[in-house]
Specification:
With 224 residues, the chain is mainly α. Helix content is 71%, strand content 4%. It has 9 helices and 3 strands; from the N terminus they run αβααββαααααα. It comes from Dethiosulfatibacter aminovorans DSM 17477. Pfam families: FCD, GntR.
């Protein structure tokens, strides 16, 4: 049931409850613990090589972060990610990332276009190897770097806050429906606009890219 979880390294210099919390949180964000999967304290404690107390404390903390649902007589289970959650997040991303590409051009982000292009090549390689975890990793790094090029610390902070739900979204998206050729082409369209200093084209490119994601994810939820 929890065979994807590894025994915790008790030598880490952190409170045990924090180590268990981080381990379970990472497992949820990476899809090792799936939406609606029951979290059984005894089995989790045995799998992680700890007592039930830090597991119980970790589950309560995960509930506060919205990653776990606890119900009377039913126990704890991994929270689902709803269509509304994803659409709300993509709408916020559109506002942040279209502003980010504008600022990136104003602040000479073109100097780091090579980094973006290399990440896109790594994304394409991961797609050809059917490595979903790496696809998630490189897609995340591409969008984070675009926001970083804005040079706006608040914008970067807001984007960081969205990354957890986006990681869960990307796992659904890359596992169930996506057109990698379109994603790669749309990424390159945004890069080219930043390189040439064309703000309008960059904003339109990012808007179009995120609209593609919204349309595709709508298909996933209709199918399910």
């Amino acid at each position: 049931m929890y065979d994807k979880l590894k025994i915790i390294n008790l030598g880490e210099y952190k409170p045990l409850r924090d180590i268990v919390f981080e381990t379970l949180k990472e497992a949820i964000l990476k899809g090792k613990l799936e939406p609606r999967e029951r979290l059984m304290e005894i089995q989790l404690a045995e799998q992680l090589g700890v007592s039930r107390t830090p597991v119980r404390e970790a589950i309560r903390k995960l509930e506060l972060e919205g990653l776990v649902i606890m119900e009377p007589r039913k126990g704890a289970y991994v929270s689902d990610i709803s269509y509304a959650d994803i659409i709300d997040t993509l709408e916020v991303r559109e506002a942040l990332e279209t502003f980010a590409v504008k600022l990136a051009i104003e602040k000479d982000g073109a100097e780091r276009i090579g980094e973006l292009e290399n990440l896109n090549k790594e994304f394409e390689k991961a797609y050809k190897e059917e490595d979903v975890q790496k696809m998630v990793k490189f897609d995340t790094e591409i969008h984070n770097l675009i926001v970083e090029l804005s040079g706006n610390k608040k914008l970067i902070s807001f984007m960081d806050a969205l990354n957890e739900i986006m990681q869960r979204f990307r796992l659904i998206y890359f596992n169930e429906t996506y057109n990698p050729e379109v994603i790669i082409r749309e990424h390159n369209e945004v890069f080219e606009a930043i390189k040439t200093g064309d703000k309008e084209r960059a904003i339109q490119g990012m808007t179009s890219h995120l609209s593609t994601l919204k349309d595709d994810i709508k298909g996933v939820f209709k199918k399910n």
